[in-house]
Design a protein that fits this description.
Layout lengths: L15 H24 L7 E4 L7 E2 L14 E6 L2 E6 L2 E6 L12 E2 L4 H9 L11 E6 L4 E6 L6 E8 L4 E9 L13 E5 L2 E7 L7 E5 L5 E2 L12 E8 L2 E9 L10 E9 L17 E5 L2 E2 L5 E2 L2 E5 L3 E3 L11 E9 L7 E8 H8 L4 E2 L8 E2 L22 H9 L16 E4 L5 E11 L5 E9 L3 E7 L8 E8 L7 E8 L3 E7 L3 E5 L9 H6 L6 E3 L2 E3 L19 H7 L21 H4 L5 E3 L5 E3 L13 E2 L26 H33 L2 H11 L18 H5 L38
Parallel strand pairs: 1-31
Antiparallel strand pairs: 2-34, 3-4, 4-5, 5-6, 7-8, 8-9, 9-10, 11-12, 12-13, 13-14, 15-16, 16-17, 17-18, 19-20, 21-23, 22-23, 23-24, 24-27, 25-26, 27-39, 28-29, 29-30, 30-31, 32-33, 33-34, 35-36, 37-38
Pfam family, one: PSI
Subcellular location: Membrane; Secreted
GO cellular component, one term: plasma membrane
Amino acid sequence: MWFRCKHIAMVSPQPFPVRMHLYLQVVLLLELCSQVASWNMHVQPNVRLQLQDVSDAKKFIINKDEENGVNYYKLLMTEGEQMLIGARNKILNISMVTLNETTMTRRLEWPPRSHDTAICEQKSQSKELCQNYIRVLGKDNDQKYYVCGTHAFAPKCRKFEYQVEKSEFKLDQEESGIGKCPFDPRHNSTAVYTDGKLYAGTVSDFQAMLSLIMEGTESPRRTVEHDSNWLNKPNFVGSFDIDDKIYFFFREMAVENINCGKATFSRVARICKNDQGGITAMKGIWTSFFKARLNCSIPGEFPFYFDELKATSELSQGNYMSTAKSDNRTRMFYGVFNTPDNSIRGSAICAYRYSDIVNVFNGKFKGQESAAHNWLPVPEFKTPNPHPQACVNNSLEIDVPTLGFIKSHPLMDAAVQPAGGGPVLIHTSFSSRFSAITVDWQVIAADNRFYDIMYIGTDDGRVLKAINKGQGSDVESVVIEDIQVMANNEPIVSLKIYKGHTERLIVMSQENIVSIPLHRCNQQKTCSDCVKLQDPQCAWSDGKCMARPKGIHNILHGTPEVCPDAGRAEGTSKRTTTSTPVPPPAIVPKSCKPCICASKANLSETEDGQQNHVTRSSTITPASDSVIGINSKKELLPCAPSVVEMRNDDQVYTASTLAIALVISVVVSMLVGLVIGYRISVCRHHTRNPEQMIAYEQNFGSLRKNPNRHSLDGSHNLMNHYTEPKKLNFVSNLPASKSPNLPNGTVESKIIPNNPNKTYI
């Protein structure tokens, strides 16, 4: 390297602590790399598709004269083959079979009043948002509907009666919708309409600062206002009507974690339907409101948490693992969880049993004696008896001490743990996260086992189809399909399964509605492709891949040795599910032959009497950076070059690859910097004038406690600096007689003691 060293000013090599700091950063990056790599269990979608590759896909087309902005679609209700969609100034009645707006029932139109629109625009809201977006819909009977909308940031609710003979909706009553419906269609809110009552979790002000859970009747009940122990900036996700209670799911700032910094926790809260409020200070306040944390984390000595609940599935009878018994199921739901925005981008799916939620609410409460104390479990002797969580016939009879305990202790101590102890599916990506989920519950497959099939939406417009193939307590995730449904990478906000004379999956974003079949069995042309799909809905029978619970299959391993065309298909077959030619995946070595990578496995009888592979030879399996399954069985998977369908323009980079590239770039940069610093220091050493350096040190000295160790010759004499009399440089108001030489007088000079360990200014 060539440097003009004489023009470089006093540059010295980095001190040891700085170098150690950089080394520690590299170690941390390597640890991060290893953590990312440990998540990557070589599980990837068996098939990748675009929407044009999916046969019989349908899209809802709205009239051209209505295409004047975002409709903020929201699925409100399903009735038979029809689904009612909340949109801008209307409720759409759409067929789930054809995805066309039905002509049998006239659509409900409800635009805002011009006066409310003008006021909304004066509040600096856009003309698009100053419309009436329908967010809440309830039904009393076959003819009466309860509807709430944003109504130009002035929420209102109406009761309509549908007149069959005139095929139109007649207005029956109108009331305020504040506390029942959000002001903004982009606000997260949820509502349950049951027994003629609306239970809603939303905001009650224009700026969305005041959140509440309210039952809106003539004598409404609600959560305590301005109390962060009850609700602390929540984002509502969903709600269930279960027996005599209403359950709300949301995420909020965790007040019990405030001593460790701000954090968002996921919650499940519940209230009793017959809660009438309390007396005195609790009048109009829920006496049955309690909440608990929903835990979704990768278990270990230091668990990795997915703290932000994004969506929930429906509540139904299911099982997070595959089972051979039809009665081995329980009431449960699945939840979508994300990491914070400033963390490692990741998503997870966790399953929860309703019985586990009930047990947590029957347990201990969490509280703190004062703001200076930690949050700790409340001892049983300090808990009212009977347990406050029980629904009572008349809440107005609850005594004052119990009401005081209820008001100050809404949080349960234990968290609701996921079924199986951890996520059933994990997703890591630099570009997308999970955003919605629905489940096809307990589908019987050709192996006579029952599976919960998960359909998961992402915020870049994709739909993943996944199962847990594990036979037992172990979780072994399989992602069957990855379909790009939304062309513009629009976030998917809702998913709905329809099962009638046809089976469809309804995929909804804020701007579009798309319908696709639940499976693509008929698009697999060979037995090998059908088996490799590992789809419980598909089996090879009568020379076709069909949606039936009988035929050739291998869901556990996905190896096609059981197929009659296994020898030919492994070496020569190509996927035919796309409309464009698919080249062999570049990530599979050319020397990898199916006969070498995956020899025929030994067969043994499983607990269900089915023949499955139990031993295999060494394999090569490509890695994935998008979907990661938790595979607790350390078994080797077969090399399958035709399992993963890659388009010509697809480029897959694993998270571990990017992390390793980052670490290598940092290390190289450090080495280059050290070399440059070393060259500069050597150059400076040869060009330095010793006499000038000694003069510099004598003139400027050092303020360090032990300056001699930094001197050039091993000694550094600062005696003159400390012993020279120091004159104070300010004007005094002493009499002139005491200072005859100066008109304003002067201060007597004082000698500062020689103390080299102190610095005087």
